[in-house]
Amino acid sequence: MKQFISKIISNERIAKEQYSMVLDAAGMSEKATPGQFVHVRCGHDADPLLRRPFSIYRVRDVGGQKAIEIIYKIVGRGTALLAKKRPGDPIDVLGPLGNGFNINNPSITFIVAGGIGAAACYMLAEELVKKKCKIYYFFGARSKDYVICEEDFRALGCEIHICTDDGSSGHKKLIPDHLTDIIKEIPKAELSTAEIYACGPMIMLKKTAEAAEKAKIRCQMSLEARMGCGVGACMSCVVKCKQGDSFMYKRVCKYGPVLNASEIIWE
Ligand SMILES: Cc1cc2nc3c(=O)[nH]c(=O)nc-3n(C[C@H](O)[C@H](O)[C@H](O)COP(=O)(O)OP(=O)(O)OC[C@H]3O[C@@H](n4cnc5c(N)ncnc54)[C@H](O)[C@@H]3O)c2cc1C
Fold it and tell me: What is the tens place of the pLDDT at every residue in 138-176?
């Protein structure tokens, strides 16, 4: 983990309320693994005081230099300030942080991304492609205006399944339900080493965990808990997890953000 003042290479709108920001990331990009995040100071100085966490979408080569790309959605003050930044502006970044996805050797994988959750999944898909594994990519959004990154995942060779709440793109269905339907079409033997990876809103993650349990498929998920310090000190991002017959609180920033779905206590 390293704190540095990076330079913004580009900051462009990619869909409704959503932006892609590419940062010069010398010294950080080669250490980043799928599912890790950066903690970003969104203002010019110490206002807002708390950094905001963003998944590392991918590492890119820009003019022979390594850069990292984040994808973000404007939801409040910090992300609104981020959208105002221009190429060449400095930006204070801490990272890479957290423990990302544990990539075994699955034959088939199901990546389930809800909205901006897609940001945590691209580097993962890149790694899975290197392992020559079949990837089903499920993406859910409110409507076609919110669909992001589809072409990036398609270019990797993923089988794309889009679901929208209003049916304006893909299926008019919730993604965990569509996931269940697709799993049913695959012969059981092929699913023995399958894995599900997910990132998105908590309700989508909960339903995906239930679908995974029913289908007896291992499932890891990246949690977007509200985060303070990002380095395990402030305890603001804890999530209730199973521990034997009891429970414990795990810090998403330090222990995660990726956890096994089976260890989370959904409330
Ligand atoms: C590990 C991790 C990775 C993340 N990766 C991304 C990413 O790649 N792209 C992206 O757009 N967002 C990501 N998020 C969520 C992002 O950090 C928040 O949306 C951001 O901090 C909001 O800041 P704000 O100042 O704009 O909003 P605030 O003013 O702080 O909050 C505005 C609204 O956003 C909601 N919100 C705030 N923080 C979070 C959060 N952590 N998760 C969900 N909702 C939140 C609040 O409930 C509130 O309704 C990630 C979160 C975590 C923990």
Answer: 999 999 999 999 999 999 999 999 999 999 999 999 999
Structurally, at CATH architecture level, domain 225-267 sits in Ribbon (2.10)
Q: How far is the CA of 87 from the centre of ligand 1 (A)?
A: 23
Ligand 1 pocket check: which of 68, 73, 75 to mutate, most ligand atoms within 8 Å of Cβ?
A: 75
CB-based pocket (< 6 A), ligand 1: 37, 52-55, 70-73, 75-79, 116, 119, 224-227, 257
Contact present, 155 and 122 (Cβ < 8 Å): no
**Distance from Cα 181 to the centre of ligand 1, integer Å:** 30
Parse the chain into domains and list their residue ranges.
2-97, 108-214, 225-267
Distance 233 CA to ligand 1 centre (A): 19
CATH of domain 108-214: 3.40.50.80
Q: Is the pLDDT of residue 113 over 80?
A: yes
Structure confidence at residue 15 (pLDDT): 96
Q: How far is the CA of 216 from the centre of ligand 1 (A)?
A: 31
1 touches 35 (CB < 8 A) = no
As a whole number, mean pLDDT of residues 195-201 equals 97
- Beta strands (DSSP E) in the chain are 2-15, 18-24, 37-40, 52-55, 58-62, 65-73, 90-97, 108-114, 134-141, 159-164, 195-199, 218-222, 238-243, 246-251, 258-260
Selecting from 2.60.40.420, 3.40.50.1820, 3.10.20.600, 2.40.30.10, what CATH number does the domain 2-97 have? 2.40.30.10
